[in-house]
Amino acid sequence: MSAVRLPPATRRPGRLRRWAKAWVSPAFIDFWASHLDPTWSLERPLARIVGRRQESHDAVTLLLAPNRHWRGFAPGQHLSLGAEVEGARISRSYSLSDLLRADGRLSVTVRHVPGGKLSTHLCHHARVGEVLELGPAFGEMTLPSMPTAPLLFLAAGSGITPLMAHVRAQAAQGMPVPLTLVYSARTRADLCFAGELRGLAAAHPNFSVHFALTREVATATNCINATLASDESLGRVDEALLAARVPALADRIVFACGPGEFVAHARALLATQVREFQAEAFTPPPRVVEEGGHVQLTLAASGRTLEVPRGMPLLAALEAEGIKPAAGCRMGICNTCACGKRSGTSRDLHTGEATTEPLSALKLCVSSAVSDLVIDL
After folding, report:
1. Domain FAD-binding FR-type: where (predicted)?
2. Which of 48, 234, 255, 333 is deepest in the core (most CB within 10 A)?
3. How far apart are the first and last CA of the chain?
């Protein structure tokens, strides 16, 4: 039989793909296709890094060219990126920070997390030409194509990245409704996109931006105010700042995104004071810990039985035993680690609620065992 050169992936399975899958495994086909082009695969979404830009002292934007298996996204969503680091395949979730370009390229902004293997690789070692695995886009913090109410975006830390995609989407439409962005960071060196945001504010009367710097100090003079621009303030986002910077606050649809503490603070300030409030936290929720002891965890598919601590996230407990289920955000957002629960009592670590009902989508990263469990792994 003569060798068959596989074409680039297409969105719909063709006759050649169906024939190939009937005779050989997708992994075998992908292995040989990658020798022709690293982004060729039978089914897997892959992307090549085609550009990188430093956004702050500890964050980079990667410009990615995906293959045809990737299905696109809406501003405000995230995706999982996978790469091989130190001989192991690692996947984590990151935000899409720009609109999908006309040439199909997309941008992901990654902030370095000390000790984080994948963020260290992407921020410091990944180079143009490297191929990454892509997961489908996910996340519910999206807007209708043409919003009808004024908007308020509250961002802190990495929370700016999905909101930046929204800002760019609104700018592409000419800022059809009033939009205010309040962006909290420790210092100016931590700010991403500051120059672009100021440029958009100058170009669009309907858009304003304010930077709240929580750890900035005076450097040029003993007079702190002399070091601050007109769109900057020192300290946390609070009621006084919002009253001064956000007109018609009660009419706003609010999106808040950032560390859990920041989101909780924003919710307490605004949830009952505005037209609508949506939020996503970029840090795991507080962990509800049971009173000591261990329970039995049975993996139905393999028949393996483990002893795991009560109160520990099931994903962490499995990884401690050398079992590595597919995982992404580790915050209960992306559903990558979800699996079925057949029996037993589990606890949702977001809410503290325990449930004895069988579940079709037990999120391992934010669930713990209260009693013996049987899960579909």
Report:
1. 42-144
2. 255
3. 39
Residue for token pair 């300030």: 269
Task: Report how many domains make up the chain.
Answer: 3
The contacts of residue 69 (CB under 8 Å, 6+ apart) are 9, 11, 41, 43, 44, 45, 46
Q: Using the Cα atoms of residue 183, residue 187, residue 190 and residue 193 in order, give the sign of their dihedral.
A: positive
Residues of the chain short of pLDDT 50, as ranges, are 1-13, 32, 35, 218-226
Residue 145 is encoded by which pair of tokens?
A: 């194509």
Q: Is residue 215 part of a domain?
A: yes
Domain end position, chosen among 106, 134, 162: 134
Domain at 262, CATH number = 3.40.50.80
Per-residue pLDDT tens digits for 262-316: 999 999 999 999 999 999 987 765 566 666 789 999 999 888 999 999 989 999 9
Q: What is the dihedral of CA 325, 59, 255, 203, to 10 degrees?
A: -150
Q: What does the angle CA 138 – CA 141 – CA 143 come to, to the nearest 5 degrees?
A: 115
Bridge-based pairing state of the strands 338-343 and 373-375 = antiparallel
Q: How many residues does the chain have?
A: 377
Domain around 105: 46-134
Cα 325 to the center of its chain, rounded Å: 19
Q: Is the pTM of this model over 0.70?
A: yes
